[in-house]
Design goal:
The complex is a heterotrimer of chains A (326), B (320) and C (334). Chain A has 326 residues and is an all-alpha fold. Helices cover 71% and strands 0% of the residues of chain A. Chain A contains eleven helices and no strands. Chain B contains twelve helices and no strands. Chain C has an eight-stranded mixed β-sheet, sandwiched between helices. In chain C, α4 (110-121) crosses α5. The chains are: A mainly alpha (326), B mainly alpha (320), C alpha/beta (334). The A-C interface holds A 1-7, 9-10, 12-17, 323, 326 and C 15, 17-18, 22, 24, 43-45, 47, 49-50, 53, 60-62, 97-99, 180-181, 184-185, 214-215, 273-282.
Chain lengths: 326, 320, 334
Amino acid sequence: MASSSTTDTNSVPVLPAKEEKAIGIWQDSFGRLMKNRMAVLSIIIVLIMFFFAIFGPFLTPYDFLKQDLSIRSQPPSSEHWLGTDYLGRDVLSRVIYGARTATLVSLLVVVLSSFIGIVVGSISGYFGGKIDFFLMWFTDLNMAFPNLVLGVVLAVSLRPPLSRWMEQMYLSTANPGFRQSSLLDLALVVTVIVLVAWCPYARVLRSQVMAVRNHNYVLAARALGLSTFTIVVKYIIPNAIGPVIVQMSAGMGSAMLTESAFSFLGIGINPPIPSWGNMINESLRQWTSAPHLLAAPALVLGLMTVSFSFLGDGLNDALNPRQWKG
Amino acid sequence: MARYIFWRLMRWIPGVIFLLFIVYALMFFGGGDPIQIMFSKEATDAFLPGNPRYEAVKEQLGLNRPFLVQFGDYLWKVMRGDFGISLNDSRPVAKSLFAALPITVSIALSATAIIAIVGIPLGVIAALNQNRWPDNLILSSALFFWGIPTFVAAPLLMMLFCWQFPILPVPRGWAGVFTVNAIIPLTVASIRPMALVIRQARSAVLDVLSEDYIRTARAKGLPEWVTIIKHALRPVLTPVITQMGVVMTNLLAGSLLLEIVFGIPGIGRLIRDGILNNDYSMLLGCTLVILALVTLTNLLVDISYPLLDPRLKQAQRGDV
Amino acid sequence: MGEILLDVNDLKTRFRSRGKLIHAVNGVSFHVNRGETLGVVGESGCGKSVTMLSLLQLLPPAAQIESGTALFNRQDLIKMNFRQIQKVRGGKVGMIFQDPMTCLNPVLKIGDQVGEALIYHRRVTKEVALARAIELLRLVGIPDPEQRVKDYPHQFSGGMRQRAMIAMALACEPDLIIADEPTTALDVTIQAQIVELVKDLRDRLGVAIIWITHDLSLVAGLADRIMVMYAGLIVEEAKTEDIFDDPRHPYTLGLLSALPAFQAEKKVRRLASIPGSPPDLRAQPISCPFVPRCPFAFERCHSEVPVLMPIKGGEGSGHRIACFADTREWRAKA
């Protein structure tokens, strides 16, 4: 370009060559992601977990609910690769089923909380003014206060009405599904975590919508007669989707941890349905004599959260490179 | 400055009251019947709605008044220090709360101090050695430790240091911050948040070092240590202090898990017992205290901003 | 005027970017005399800033000085170690950057930043540095300096910030000041004020100045000599009058004919611009870099890199060009 513009004299003067093909943002980011070994490893681990979540229960050697009091708290052996727990249940099968619990809860949480957050954030960003002020005030409040405490309050107070509602549904539809306490647990846990987890998405969307509203190219697009739908699809979504994806990855790991914490406290998924959190809780009773009961779920939980955190980090680097700095 | 503090209070206090309102409403409309909980240990027949004894107790406790009246009454009593009676053992909630409060706060403060003293320098070192081995080592360790939940790290550490290599006694109860007993709990409490602080500090230092005014400082021929400490560190403090505030609030809440695992008689334990016994007054009281502590922390962080960065006399916390 | 203060010889600087090497500065040689003002003109990316940053070893980590010497008071700046170059920076050579908002530390007071170089270079106390800062602010025309020293950068206007940066550069009474596009980020009216200020200071203090800009007309009233750069090379260097009266290099011709004022004189109706774009600096030059855009190019230009040499018949005037074509002849013929 022959014209002059104020350039940062410290930045690298890269001039486009004729031979290079223009790469799209997605291919560029994907390429960067693939080069990050830790991220690739994390993706593999996450995919393995998904695999077990879907197919696991069909592959378990034993029924994860079956108790056999004659072989309580056995250490790992050739019959029970991870040993048995204090009720004689096969630990390996329970750990595998725990993957299903974890995946189900985190996926539901991430999908629902991102949906709510995106809607709230978009409304806030689009309308601005008082609506924005109050919505953001509420969001900030929610974010500023610790999830666990709010979660506990919500869980304790929402449980009775929820169980009453389920009783009524059972009475009106005679569907035994409504009688299952595990469904109650699941619904409660997911609801509670979603209620505290939607805020970051709202913030991201709001800032994207506001930024796009103010950008000159939106004015230009409007001047050309593009509809709101087109503007949303072409401008807001591509820019917002990066941070949202990063948040989703972090959100999955965080939802898993929160669910485990809840199960650990007794307000999450309760036994006999295995969740890594409640397995850890149960194991704490006699972990000195039966450490494998603690090690199995703890290691798996740790592995998954670390993987999500590396994955989230890798996604962040891939989508927001900082090559020019330093 | 006084005006700044005033407006900050205006932002936070209505928030606390609003949240309290929601929490109170949740418990009021959602939870079980407090009378039945209180007397659950006694004969259950007598304590059903409609029964005269039930109604008498209800009237005595003022539980038949409208919701808003009860809420207002609660607020009023709280401001005078009366948090109601525990549904579990009929003792004043305030007593148990204020006995447990100093313990939880001291854990949170000590852990925060450890994180600041160890974490921030590590983050700075990582930034100064960007992409070389100290940076990679520090970053991966941080990310790794972040993934270990409290209730996993606690037994693991205990297993390691009390059992395998018996150098420390098994921590039970709480004797104070500077005792041997406190080492493992404080370590467990600090590990995860420290990871976040290290990353934040590193990120902040990298951002600041790439700013033009650092180049100006170097162009003036200032010694490198002056450039880093005088010019770079000050702007770094703002995001770092924000993060420390978040850390502190998470510690206040995270002590929940910590106290259960180590048997420490703090607020977290009270919450846990409250959950087990459906003790709504206790839960309400604990939540209120934690809300107050968190608000105080956020307020202190907000107040520090104009002191650190002269541009921020007008800005709000959400903009930083 | 006449004693050589800075003598740069065959400076080459490279950048590493995304695995490729960029030849930002390809063999630049020039000198600056004591008390003289040298204007450095060229478009973005031509290497003018990188050249000057190389002199003070202020390049980012991705950059490397490949070869060359830069004698300042007979010491080679390129070969200095960190402590030596630190003494030169600020103490002997002051630098002014383009954007005063980002170049001043927002959390420190102006007085502190203006005076601090003195503390480390001249070992004075804070009080003395502060007093000197007040004097300097007064010198650059900032009203009420005693109060202003306590202000922060965001409390100053754009023009005032740039004046503060000038004061900062002058603090240790350097022999040379390098100004990297100091007025580009300012309004036109403020630009004029700053140029006037610099002229005044230069006359009073006798400091040598290297003024980098992309605006040829700006530097016309300020510089004694002008150096035109393109693609990491100097293409023409002469006294200011000679650049305007007798431009030789095709690029200089292009720049001049693009100036509105210039064209008004020649009564040209459309604003001319130089067609084409600057070359890709990733390849090392094997021909004259201006060839694709040069209306005077012939065979030799495609196969050799021209070296900066005195013009024919003008060996004493200091007018040098790096060009094989003798544009004067071409123009006479046309």
